[in-house]
């Protein structure tokens, strides 16, 4: 696979320290280099970004000043993360790229566009706005990537994404990558691609995911905040906690601020700079818990997450998979903790049965996670 890439990419691979490509990279890269449209489903943490970024960079003619490729994602955070990867892997190639995201200063983005980027990394709404204003010319774009494609093809983004794809040359290549793919979304993906190859990767040894334990605490809704507080106090923990309701997130933030706990929040209604600051503080280890909504945290690769906490039960199995995939990456172990009521407990057990993952009930004892029996034994003594 690597032998077919341009020298600057082979050099970047040597520097990266990666020993061997992952399964999704081995399967996807040759197909993309062959010019085929692709729909790829592969678990989180298996190297999907590089699976499209390597052939994308390989296809760019650095001597042509026109825009040649576009990468779309639904969240600002994911766009910035992929753009940073692009900067790393395009070093020394002369390829110019820029990021275009909603919520950012439009004037500044127009200045960036004057530098004639050959690759744009964008959220769909802002990009379509600039296409309609004729500030972005798509007629020479030969590749469009939909990262976390299942999020881009939900009804909220579908028309925008379809309009962007239609604005490109007719023989463009469309690539869609996602960790999960529901049948309805797959049909939408097939509709915007031409005779696509479909790849499904189950689990990946090369991605060396560690052992992930799935546990839960049974509690009343009002007790979830007390449990969350105990989780933030666990030794050497770095926890990403998921909540469904943006309104609730502010309540948690205020209560934790009052108790002087090291936590931050991340949701889509925050200003761009606030979101970036929260993510940076979490990545740099300045806070040991980040409470986030799914949209804001989708697809993010944050090293060293020890615990994924579900304050609210995910709405479906696919969401459970995406959340759980934030921990146990690159050989590290992790724990997925669900805080559930009795009614939610049944649903959680069903998810884990279908995913074929063992699920254990736990309690807190002397500030540590313990088995129920352990606590009772100690109490009897």
TrEMBL record:
Pfam families: DEAD, Helicase_C. GO terms for biological process: response to cold. Keywords: ATP-binding, Helicase, Hydrolase, Nucleotide-binding. One of its GO terms (molecular function) is ATP binding. One of its GO terms (cellular component) is ribosome. Residues 29-199 form the Helicase ATP-binding domain. Residues 226-380 form the Helicase C-terminal domain. The keyword Hydrolase applies. It comes from the Bacteria. This is ATP-dependent RNA helicase. The lineage of its organism: Bacteria, Bacillati, Bacillota, Bacilli, Bacillales.
């Amino acid at each position: 696979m690597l032998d077919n890439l341009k020298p600057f990419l082979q050099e970047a691979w040597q520097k990266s320290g990666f020993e061997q490509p992952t399964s999704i990279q081995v399967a996807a890269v040759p197909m993309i280099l062959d010019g085929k449209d692709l729909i790829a489903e592969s678990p989180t943490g298996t190297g999907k970004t590089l699976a499209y970024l390597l052939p994308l960079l390989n296809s760019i003619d650095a001597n042509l000043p026109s825009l040649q490729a576009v990468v779309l994602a639904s969240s600002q955070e994911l766009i910035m993360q992929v753009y940073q990867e692009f900067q790393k892997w395009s070093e020394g190639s002369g390829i110019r790229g820029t990021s275009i995201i909603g919520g950012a200063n439009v004037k500044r983005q127009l200045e960036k566009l004057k530098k004639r980027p050959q690759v744009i990394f964008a959220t769909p709404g802002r990009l379509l706005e600039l296409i309609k204003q004729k500030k972005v010319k798509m007629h020479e774009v030969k590749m469009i990537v939909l990262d976390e494609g299942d999020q881009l093809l939900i009804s909220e983004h579908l028309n925008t994404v379809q309009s962007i794809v239609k604005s490109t040359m007719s023989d463009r290549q469309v690539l869609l990558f996602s960790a999960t793919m529901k049948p309805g979304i797959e049909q939408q993906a097939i509709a915007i691609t031409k005779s696509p190859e479909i790849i499904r990767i189950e689990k990946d040894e090369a991605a060396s995911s560690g052992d992930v334990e799935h546990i839960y605490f049974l509690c009343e809704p009002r007790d979830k905040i007390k449990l969350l507080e105990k989780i933030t106090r666990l030794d050497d923990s770095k926890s990403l906690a998921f909540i469904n309701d943006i309104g609730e997130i502010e309540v948690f933030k205020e209560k934790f601020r009052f108790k002087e706990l090291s936590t931050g929040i991340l949701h889509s209604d925050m200003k761009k700079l606030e979101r970036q600051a929260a993510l940076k503080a979490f990545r740099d280890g300045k806070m040991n818990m980040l409470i986030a909504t799914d949209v804001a945290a989708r697809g993010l690769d944050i090293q060293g997450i020890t615990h994924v906490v579900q304050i609210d039960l995910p709405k479906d199995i696919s969401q459970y998979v995406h959340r759980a995939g934030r921990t146990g990456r690159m050989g590290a172990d992790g724990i997925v903790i669900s805080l559930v009521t009795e009614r939610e407990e049944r649903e959680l057990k069903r998810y884990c049965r279908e995913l074929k993952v063992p699920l254990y009930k736990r309690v807190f004892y002397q500030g540590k996670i313990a088995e129920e029996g352990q606590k009772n034994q100690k109490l009897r003594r």
